[in-house]
Structures are given as C-alpha cells and as structure tokens.
Specification:
By secondary structure, the protein is α/β, with parallel strands linked by helices. It has helices spanning 7-16, 21-26, 32-37, 55-68, 70-78, 108-130, 153-161, 180-189, 207-224, 226-231, 240-246, 272-278, 280-299, 306-320, 338-350, 382-387, 407-426, 441-447, 465-486, 497-510, 521-535; strands spanning 38-41, 44-47, 142-146, 171-175, 195-200, 233-236, 253-254, 325-331, 368-370, 394-399, 455-460. The radius of gyration is 25 Å and the shape is globular.
Length: 547
C-alpha cells in the first residue's frame, strides 16, 4: 500500500516554521487547542500542547492517519491477523493481558493457552515467594533473571519501577550482557543456597543467555552439587527439550510463543521475575493497566485516542520537522530504565528504511531515542537541549504522589520537571536565564535561550503497577501506529541478526580455532592486535609510549 500524500502536511510544517510555541499556547484562551492535545486515562495524563501544531495541522495529521489505514491496521492486529507479514505471524501481545475482554478477538484455544500459562506463572511466583519448600528449596532471598533484549529490558524496568510494591519478596537481579563482570559480581555477592536462576530465551539458543546461564549453573553446582543446582534452575522458552538438556526440569519451563515479539513480551511468562518481585497480584494489576489502554485504543476515535495522539506528534516531529532524535527524561529514579526500554521498543520496531512492500520508505523513520532521569539530566545534557544547534523534542514524565515522605525533595523534583518544559518552550531574551539585559553583546548572545523547543508531558498519579501498565501500553500502541504511518513492519527485526552472525564467525578466530581468511581487513588487523597483546604475558599495565 502506498503512503498517503504528504504534501498537505509539508505545507502546514512550512507555514508553522516561524510560529512561536508560546504564542500557540497563549492564543488558546478558549481551550480548544488543549482539548485536541490533552487527555487523561485513569491515572495517566498526557499533555501535547507544547508541540508545534495548530488546529489545521492537527486535522491534516488525523486525515493522514485515516488515509494510512490506522483504524484498519489496529483492528487487524487486535483480531489476530498476521500483521507481521515478513514472518507471517500475528502480534498478540495485547491478548496476553486481555483476560476475557472482547477487544482482542482470538481463538478459544489461544486464549485458553495464555490463561493457563499466566496461572502457572502466578502459582510459581507465589510458591517461590511464600512456600519454596513445596519445590524442595529453602527460603529464597535472591533470583537471577538471565536474558537479553526483550527478555531483560521490560522485566528489569518493571522490577525497578515497582520494587516498593513487592516488599517482602526476593531480590531480583538481572544478567544480560555477555561481559562477565556482572556475572562474576553476582557469584561473589549471593548465597547459592538461597538463590534461584531463571533463563529466558525463546529458542534457548541465545549465545549471551547460555554463556551467563552456564556460569550461574556451574557456580550453583560447585557449591551445592549438580542435583541441587538443577533444582534451582527455571526457564521461559519455546524449546523445552533444549532447556531440559541444560538441566531445567520440564515442569519448571514456562512457554513462549511466536505470536509475541521479545520487546512486547513482558506481559507473558517472560514477566515471571516481575511476579516474583511484586507478587502475583501486583503482576495482575500491571496487566490490568495495560488492558485499560488496550480497550481505549480499540474503542476510541482517532482524534480521541491517546496512543494515536502521541504517535502523530512523534511522526510530525520526525518526518515533517526533521528532528532526528527524541529525549526521554523520567523525573523519578524508579523509571531510570525507561529510556533503554523505549530504545528497543521504538528503534527495533520502526528502525526500518524499507517498507512492507519492499520499497524504500520516502520519509525519515524512527528517531534516535535516548535519555536518563531528571534532575540529573539537567546537569549533563540539558545545555544542548536548550541552546544546541539541533532541536530535540523531549518527553518529560513525572509522578505526582511519591512513595516516600520527603515532601521538600518531591516538590523540588516536580518544580524542575515543570520548569524545564516551560523553559524549553519560552526561552529568554538577550540576557541571562531570567531575561535581564546584558550590556556585552557577545555575552548576551551566549546567554540567550531561543526557546520554541517542543516537549511532551506525561504525569502519573502514582507509580503503581496499574499506572506503569498504562504507560508502557501507551508507548507500545503509539509505536505500532507510527509503523502504519511509515508503512513499515513493527514486528520483525532483521537488522539485529547480521552482527550476531559475523560475531559467530569471529569467535573461533579469537579462540585460534578457526581461520580469519574470510574476514575483512580491518577485523583481521584488530584480531592480530588482540592476539599479540594476549600472547605477551609481560605487557606492562600502563600503555606504551609512542604513536
């Protein structure tokens, strides 16, 4: 399907090029613009009014979404159609949290399988938290969750965000990187007798996960013997036979399915570490929050849909205004992992230059997503956000009610969130940050804040499992909508594979068990350098002098 004509949108972008954001906000005395760009769903509030859009441009975006077939694509995904065309698969992450809801129309067999798996997950998490003796284990104090990509980022984010919601449960640690530093640290810090290990890999062939899994299994076995080590191993995988060969009993393997991509899988059995950390009831509330966003997405008109609104703003900033990156700044330390989670969700989903028809996409697609927590971020890179040569749209995310009693701290945190959004929009005069005049012309220019820099504000009433579910599902559906606007497949990730394939060819050469003749000249030279430094046992700790 060809993309709709972008010309009307380009004309609006050109018309608004000299428009002041502050002027757009100030001119909205009757609140009509805010009515288009502000919305609430339960404990989540979305404000897009600091974006360079007026009513005609917004209507043109809605018309583009309608012409691109967003409604039909949404309905197809929720109906279980094979929207992942390159692999002829459905994308049923919403079905994982649907319960008996009617907004996801899937077959009874799939629904029953999902329900049975989530029941097993809840039972296992409860047993590990409250009655590990039923599994022949002593009290469990620590859980090591081993996985990478979607098998790590979502569970890690949820556990870090909701740690206080699950007080009393085991500590959950995450091991993703193949770098052995973190594995070695965990082995030295944890008690093997009270530790269990969960390996999460759909194929049970992921190199990083298996290497780290062997390290933890061998650590357990060295301390407790192989039988006791295997009793502490659990897995989430579609390959039960491979997990069993590794040492995981079949009854301790929860299933994964091809109809859920890794970056959309925290709602599935991949969420076992979350349920252990915050309890089965907390995990159910997380699913319920996401389900509420699913129902809203399924039922709301395009103009009223929060995911569609968020998607259209991102599409406008990237494809019409040319902003090549977007910064995500959560003003809550518990959400520190959110930028990394969104990097995978958005950049792996929509980081495509070729559309579903095999032709180059005629528009810039996904921006680079990056960020970190405020107010730390303000003392790192906000200088560039305010006065740099590139305009970078910012997502500012805050939590209204904290889970602590330090009122002065939280008031200062929220004041910084609100102040930064205002400063990005308003800028300053040719003086200092407060707008006072400076006589020195050069200094005045350096102190000038141009403003007119767009931001989105998302507020959560509290950071509860329900609210986090709403937030993550909001971004999931916005990512899918943008894939439709760009005409790409949000559910495959072929670009992940090439580097892994080449790494598989290089590893034998590093071990000097294979030839490097077929490798490119730069890789061969780097291999030679690594080998020479390894071979010289007398290399000084300090770098040698010289070029």
């Amino acid at each position: 399907m060809a993309l709709p004509d972008i010309t009307p949108l380009a004309q609006h972008a050109a018309r608004l090029a000299g428009q002041s954001l502050a002027g757009l906000v100030a001119d909205d005395a009757a609140g009509a613009r805010a009515g288009m760009l502000v919305g609430r769903l339960g404990p989540l509030y979305l404000d897009l009014t600091r974006q360079l859009l007026d009513a005609p441009a917004w209507q043109a975006l809605l018309d583009y979404a309608d012409a691109a077939g967003v409604d039909a694509a949404r309905d197809a995904m929720l109906a279980g159609a094979p929207v992942n065309r390159s692999e002829n698969r459905a994308a049923l992450h919403a079905a994982l949290r649907a319960g008996d809801g009617g907004h996801v129309r899937i077959g009874a067999a799939v629904r029953d399988e999902i329900s049975a798996t989530l029941a097993r997950l809840a039972a296992l998490a409860t047993t590990l938290r409250e009655a590990p003796r039923d599994l022949g284990l002593p009290r469990i104090t620590d859980v090591v969750s081993i996985g990478i990509g979607g098998s790590d980022l979502g569970p890690r984010l949820a556990c870090q965000s909701l740690a206080r919601a699950g007080s009393g449960g085991p500590r959950v640690h995450f091991l993703a990187n193949v770098d052995g530093c973190e594995a070695a640290r965990l082995c030295s810090a944890l008690d093997p007798a009270s530790t269990v290990v969960i390996l999460i890999s759909k194929s049970f062939g992921t190199r990083e996960t298996l290497l780290n899994g062997r390290v933890m299994r061998d650590w357990l076995a060295a301390a407790l013997g192989r039988e006791q080590a295997d009793a502490r191993l659990f897995a989430v995988s579609a390959n039960v036979a491979a997990a069993q060969a590794f040492g995981v009993a079949p009854e301790r393997v929860l299933p994964m399915w091809d109809f859920v991509g890794g970056r959309y899988s925290l709602w599935s059995a991949v969420g076992l570490p979350i349920a252990i950390a915050i309890g089965a009831d907390g995990f159910a509330q997380l699913l319920a929050g996401a389900r509420a966003m699913d129902e809203h997405f399924a039922e709301a008109a395009l103009a009223d849909s929060l995911p569609v609104r968020l998607a259209l703003v991102g599409f406008w900033n990237r494809s019409l205004l040319g902003h090549a990156s977007r910064c995500v700044v959560p003003y809550d330390d518990r959400l520190a992992a959110l930028p990394g989670y969104l990097q995978q969700l958005e950049m792996e989903s929509n980081g495509k230059r070729v559309g579903v028809d095999g032709q180059p996409v005629p528009l810039p697609t996904v921006p680079v997503v990056w960020g970190s927590v405020g107010s730390n971020a303000q003392h790192a890179y906000f200088q560039a956000l305010h006065q740099g040569s590139d305009i970078v749209p910012v997502d500012l995310i805050g939590v209204i009610q904290p889970d602590h009693d330090l009122a002065d701290n939280h008031r200062a945190l929220l004041a910084n969130l609100l102040g930064q959004g205002a400063a990005l929009m308003l800028g300053s005069g040719d003086g200092d940050g407060a707008g006072d005049a400076v006589a020195d012309t050069a200094l005045a220019a350096q102190k000038h804040f141009p403003g007119n820099r767009p931001s989105t504000t998302i507020l959560l009433d509290r950071l509860t499992p329900q609210a986090l579910g709403l937030l993550l599902a909001l971004y999931e559906h916005a990512t899918f909508v943008q894939s439709v606007l760009w005409g790409v497949n949000a559910f495959d990730q072929w670009g992940v594979e090439l580097g892994k394939t080449l790494a598989g060819r290089i590893e034998p050469a590093l071990a000097q068990a294979g030839s490097d003749d077929e490798l490119d000249p730069v890789t061969r030279r780097l291999l030679a350098e690594i080998r020479s430094r390894r071979a010289d046992a007398n290399v000084a700790a300090e770098p040698s002098s010289g070029a």
